[in-house]
Write a structure and sequence with these properties.
The chain has 434 residues and is of the alpha/beta class. It has three domains: 188 residues, NAD(P)-binding Rossmann-like Domain (Rossmann fold, 3-Layer(aba) Sandwich), CATH 3.40.50.720; 82 residues, Orthogonal Bundle (N-(1-d-carboxylethyl)-l-norvaline Dehydrogenase, domain 2), CATH 1.10.1040.10; 133 residues, NAD(P)-binding Rossmann-like Domain (Rossmann fold), CATH 3.40.50. The chain is 40% helix and 14% strand. The strands form two sheets. An eight-stranded mixed beta sheet has the order 3-2-1-4-5-6-7-8, sandwiched between helices. The chain has a six-stranded parallel beta sheet with strand order 11-10-9-12-13-14. Strand 7, helix 7 and strand 8 form a beta-alpha-beta unit. It is globular. The termini are far apart. 47% of the residues are buried. Bound molecules: nicotinamide-adenine-dinucleotide and uridine-5'-diphosphate-glucose (UPG).
Length: 434
Amino acid sequence: MFARRIVVVGTGYVGLTTGACLASLGHRVVCSDVNATKIEQLNSGEVGIHEPGLAELVQEGIAAGRLKFAVGSADAVAEAEVVFLCVPTPMGSGGAADLAAVESVVREVREVLPRGCVLVTKSTVPVGTAARLSELVGRPDVAAVSNPEFLREGSAVRDFLNPDRIVVGSDTQDAAERVAALYARLGAPTVLTDAASAEMVKYAANCFLATKLSYVNAIAELCERLGADIADVTEGMGYDRRIGQSFLQPGPGWGGSCLPKDTAALLQVAEAVSFDFPMLRATISANSHQRMRMVAKVREACGGSLDGVRLGVLGLTFKAGTDDLRDSPALEVARLLAEEGADLIAYDPGLRGDEPGLPASLTLVDDPYLAAKESAALVVLTEWQEFRALDWGRVAGVLTGPVVVDTRNHLDPDVLRRAGLSWRGVGRTPVPAM
Ligand SMILES: NC(=O)c1ccc[n+]([C@@H]2O[C@H](COP(=O)([O-])OP(=O)(O)OC[C@H]3O[C@@H](n4cnc5c(N)ncnc54)[C@H](O)[C@@H]3O)[C@@H](O)[C@H]2O)c1
Ligand SMILES: O=c1ccn([C@@H]2O[C@H](COP(=O)(O)OP(=O)(O)O[C@H]3O[C@H](CO)[C@@H](O)[C@H](O)[C@H]3O)[C@@H](O)[C@H]2O)c(=O)[nH]1
């Protein structure tokens, strides 16, 4: 294997994982960022995000001399053979992906990229972006390549090093092959395409996953109305290998930093080419409905009104195993509960307590029993493993109302029943207290 000189621009979940993992594969990597404080911390081996194994890989990379960090990108790219763009592409106006950060990096580096360098977008970008960036760079010796990333937060390192597939697309095949070769040691199936198809794979995959979840959440609602049990239904569906067991867990709706913005962006792209996409619109609107439905469940469990009601909340991050609150359905449900007048006492093992943007009527505590104390009901919004192991007898002792609303079907209703608590989940028959 040839070790390559690589620059990764952006040191967030994707960029830092990419940089540290590529260094662990033997490449020489410089990770650059506009955030000087972040770079200072990284230089001393400190990783500010919660990703299992990432801090260790960063420290190993630094110690081996294969991983370095830099503020700004122009100097960093001076000797690069491959430059990965891993900067944010947030939801912009009308739902479109905002490419300002991507374009600003390209403007910053275009004149200083070494001859024959490959410019790779790992950020999620709309179809046509590689072609647009090629024009923006304006140099025939620099090829643009799309190499979408499929890692999940909370398992970023594991996903990066054990990918289901690697997708690399370019209108310059030789450049695509050079990028694919960086991953050769992973032995993953590799799909080589043109640039537009690689860009499309990312949106098609994320929107498919979102649609799968909206579908499951709708089936769960139907189960409630018809007296079926969603856990049995998804188990029965999932054994069909064409469906698969994963991504079938109902919840308060799907969220995070990717699925919401990527569904909105594909819808916007479709509209731009006059393609009506009612299926994707329904996927998105079903997700808003799901959040409202969880609020209605809590309201009903509390006797019809939430005004002045104290609620304990377990979990605010968009899923377990991350500290990320971006587009969190849990946080959105908490906001909606607060809007109806509830006072929220929340506990989340992933949060430190200094996170901005929490509702004013929400108090974050560092102990789940404090969240339950004197609350009229306990609402589980994120599926942290440790919630299962709580002393439910102790929880029952401090709650003023014996009700748990479990929007993730995460707890064992039988354990709660024996502890004297009633359980209400999603798509399953409620279980009254013993
Ligand atoms: N988070 C995920 O799970 C995930 C997975 C696959 C793909 N993606 C995509 O990857 C991209 C990055 O996502 P993320 O979650 O890693 O973002 P992030 O917000 O965690 O990190 C982005 C980093 O880029 C830096 N940055 C911003 N502008 C910059 C600039 N002009 N120059 C240098 N650095 C700059 C920021 O300071 C930050 O450190 C997005 O397009 C996203 O859709 C994300
Ligand atoms: O059975 C399930 C699985 C997930 N979720 C929810 O769906 C959302 C997204 O979860 P997940 O996909 O695990 O999170 P991300 O880390 O955002 O990863 C998604 O978005 C990334 C960014 O594009 C992609 O790289 C990944 O492949 C894609 O899974 C979260 O709110 C989860 O709680 C469910 O409700 N039920």
